[in-house]
Design brief:
Largest sheet of chain A: 8 strands, antiparallel
Radius of gyration of chain A: 16 Å
CATH topology of chain A: Alpha-D-Glucose-1,6-Bisphosphate, Chain A, domain 4
Distance between the termini of chain A: 30 Å
Strand order of the largest sheet of chain A: 1-2-8-7-6-5-4-3
Largest sheet of chain B: 2 strands, antiparallel
CATH architecture of chain B: Orthogonal Bundle
Shape of chain B: elongated
Distance between the termini of chain B: 47 Å
CATH architecture of chain A: 2-Layer Sandwich
Strand content of chain A: 25-35%
Oligomer: heterodimer
Order of helices and strands of chain B: HHHHEEH
Number of strands of chain B: 2
Number of strands of chain A: 8
Order of helices and strands of chain A: EEHHEEEEEEH
Helix content of chain A: 10-25%
Number of domains of chain B: 1
Structural class of chain A: alpha+beta
């Protein structure tokens, strides 16, 4: 049985001077399991699409310079694709996607994993474009996705390592 | 999405205004009630021109507005401006929040399969 469910929340912070979007979340799972969930296609396909549908395409060439491509059923016109630049299990995954640098950092804190996902854009305008994509795809998804599993909880993004 | 595009200039200046810790502190102070330049000088230990400069940036961003008393020009928060920013970011946050909820459920599923 899983531990007592707690309220899920993803903390979001926008650092406009560094044109970076930062998201933080706690998971009740070891880092290695989360790293695998980010890097194995048979796992990514299970959770990537916020609509909850399996991906129609999920290709991962897991090596520096290797490409990935995630295509969701609802948005075949908007694949999430890029190239890995650093693969350091179980705590760091870095990739370039859509002109931005993505970083997934996993830290073990008392048996839980604190995950921070950073999207570092080229400029403030580029950051706005990223956020606007959220506006465009998110509005319909907000209606489609009232299902929440409510097992993670929010953490302070700026807490010391 | 026309509303967001119309506001994007305003959002740019709002994010710029919010990037400075002194300006965030001024906003926090104004959240507890309006204040004039001289009332703001004291807690922040800043000169009048410096405070005025920060207030000008906040005003330009639409985050604060002047009070009715033109002489003293007390400033107060423009609460709708803050709500605009939150409304703009929320769909993005929600999209990733849902994605991470999915990840969370997936991890629990895998864990249950193992045991």
């Amino acid at each position: 049985m899983p531990a007592q469910p707690h309220t899920a929340e993803t903390r979001l912070e926008i650092d406009r001077s560094a044109h970076t979007i930062r998201m933080a979340r706690v998971f009740d799972a070891p880092r290695a399991a989360i790293f695998a969930a980010w890097t194995q296609p048979e796992q990514v396909t299970c959770w990537w699409d916020p609509a909850g549908e399996p991906l129609t395409t999920c290709e991962i060439d897991l090596r520096p310079g290797g490409a990935f491509r995630f295509v969701s059923k609802g948005r075949p016109d908007m694949p999430f694709s890029g190239v890995y630049s650093e693969i350091a299990p179980p705590d760091r995954l870095i990739f370039e996607a859509m002109g931005a640098t993505g970083r997934v950092v996993l830290r073990d804190v008392a048996g839980e994993t604190h995950m921070v996902v950073e999207i570092q854009c080229r400029s403030a305008e580029h950051l706005d474009q990223f956020l606007e994509m959220g506006v465009q795809t998110g509005t319909s998804q907000t209606l489609d996705n009232l299902v929440a599993y409510a097992r993670g909880r929010s953490i302070a993004i700026d807490e010391p390592a | 999405m026309a509303i967001q595009h119309r506001h994007s200039e305003q959002l740019n200046s709002a994010f710029y205004a919010l990037s400075d810790p002194t300006r965030r502190a001024i906003l926090a102070r104004l959240a507890s009630g309006e204040a004039s330049v001289s009332q703001l000088m004291e807690p922040f230990e800043l000169s009048q021109p410096t405070i005025s400069k920060h207030l000008k940036v906040l005003e330009h961003a639409g985050l604060i507005e002047g009070g009715r008393d033109a002489q003293r020009r007390p400033r107060k928060l423009a609460p709708l401006a803050m709500k605009d920013i939150a409304d703009w970011i929320e769909p993005f946050r929600q999209q990733w929040d849902t994605r991470f909820n999915n990840l969370d459920a997936h991890l629990a599923h895998i864990k249950n399969q193992e045991t």
